[in-house]
Amino acid sequence: MRLLLAVLFTLMAAPSIAEEQKLTAKDVVSLAINEAIRPGFAQYAVETTALQQGVAELCDAPSEVNLDAARDAFKSAVTAWSRVELYRLGPLMTENRYDKVLFWPDRKGIALRQVQGVLADADLDATDPTKLGGKSVAMQGLGALEFLLFGTDAEQLTTAAGAFRCHYSRAIATLQADTAATLSAEWNDPAGISKRLLEPSESDPDYRSFREVAEALTGLLAHGTEAIRDQRLLPFLGRDGAAPKPKSALFWRSGMTVPSINANFEGLRALLEKSRIAEATTAENLWVSNSATFEFGNAERAGKVVTEPVEQALQDPKQKKALDYLVIVTQSLDTILGENLAAALGLSVGFSSLDGD
Among 27, 126, 203, 355, whose CB has the most other CB atoms within 10 angstroms? Predict the structure, then answer.
């Protein structure tokens, strides 16, 4: 958790490097916010608004065409979410927002049981966004909405018989759009989280110094690939030689398992490259940045090989090999970002928030 800390201390302790690269400590943080984080959450807000509208149109006029449109909007929202979900600090991590967007890992299938219970009981509270927002996070997030749009009996949404299911879906989509809009607004508020990160203060409970800002931001990059591997890939690929379990994958019903993982990589790459963190090291160590970019490129190429839903992809040797290779890429990026870059800056990466998970 010392990657950006290393950047900041290097910039402050070695003016010649900062001067050569024309970067300051504040520049690195500002670039991360303005070039990666804000645009990512803005796009997420756009896509969830489209999702809300798509589900509303489906409820107003049930049909296969409108169901397909709502499903496409869901996929776009998942992609946008996946690009920013590893930016786990600030607004996303307050008021239980992360879990309200995505309750995962869900090893006990809590969300499925709760959603099925709502459908069985036709609980009208679930059709009211305000009331639904006060209920379990497992029944109001993207996982719950995926089941409603793609799961068992989802075809009911094309007829009047699916009215309750659709109204429940609309309530979830409304909550998702509201949350996304709030996240984007809070990141864009000049007096909000951005100011706190750019101007740490002794009076701030979380960001009293650039050291604490660094500790908050470094985990996003240094341990993001670890999250992809341990929370996204290995649960369905199987750990330690175990058989693959495609239905343990996130978003397997909608076919968005691998597209969401690809978007996870895209979000981390954007943070690395847009913030120009790696440029803070000396010229002889710039190979570290090039290596990270190379591995992100490998992840992109491997992800494109997987063209089918995860259950079918696991049965195809070529696609299965690509999925296994993504695990190797995350391990390589762990070394590059967590060891090589930190060493080039004279520090080591610290505790991972995923340890013991």
Answer: 126
Residues in the chain, overall count? 357
Cβ neighbours of residue 216 under 8 Å, at least 6 residues apart? 89, 197, 206, 207
Neighbours of 65 (CB within 10 A): 12
How many C-beta atoms lie closer than 10 Å to residue 277's C-beta?
28
Question: What is the C-alpha to C-alpha distance for residues 143 and 228, in angstroms, rounded to an integer?
Answer: 17
Q: Are residues 23 and 141 in the same domain?
A: no
Q: Report which secondary-structure segment, H or E, holds 304.
A: helix 287-305
Domain containing 101 equals: 37-188
Last residue of a domain, one of 188, 219, 243: 188
Q: Is residue 252 a part of any domain in this protein? A: yes
Give the count of domains, the chain: 2
- Read off the pTM: 0.91
Domain end marker among 188, 216, 232: 188
Burial 295-324 (b: 16+ CB within 10 A, else e): bbebbeebbebbeebbbebbeeeebbebbe
What are the backbone angles phi and psi of residue 170, rounded to the nearest 5°?
A: -65, -40
* The token pair that represents 202 in the structure block: 């002794």
User: CA-CA distance, 249 to 240, in Å (whole number)?
Assistant: 17
Per-residue pLDDT of the chain (357 residues; tens, 9 = 90+): 444 444 444 444 444 333 444 567 788 889 999 999 999 999 999 999 999 999 999 999 999 999 999 999 999 999 999 999 999 999 999 999 999 999 999 989 999 999 999 999 999 999 999 999 999 999 999 999 999 999 999 999 999 999 999 999 999 999 999 999 999 999 999 999 999 999 999 999 999 887 677 667 767 877 899 999 999 999 999 988 789 999 999 999 999 999 999 999 999 999 989 988 777 677 787 888 889 999 999 999 999 999 999 999 999 999 999 999 999 999 999 888 877 766 665 544 454 545 434
Task: Answer yes or no: do 109 and 241 share one domain.
Answer: no
| Residues 147 and 112: beta-carbon distance below 8 Å | yes
Does residue 353 fall inside a structural domain?
no
User: Is residue 258 within 8 Å of residue 313, measured between CB atoms?
Assistant: yes
208 and 66 in one domain?
Answer: no
262: its two tokens: 């690809």
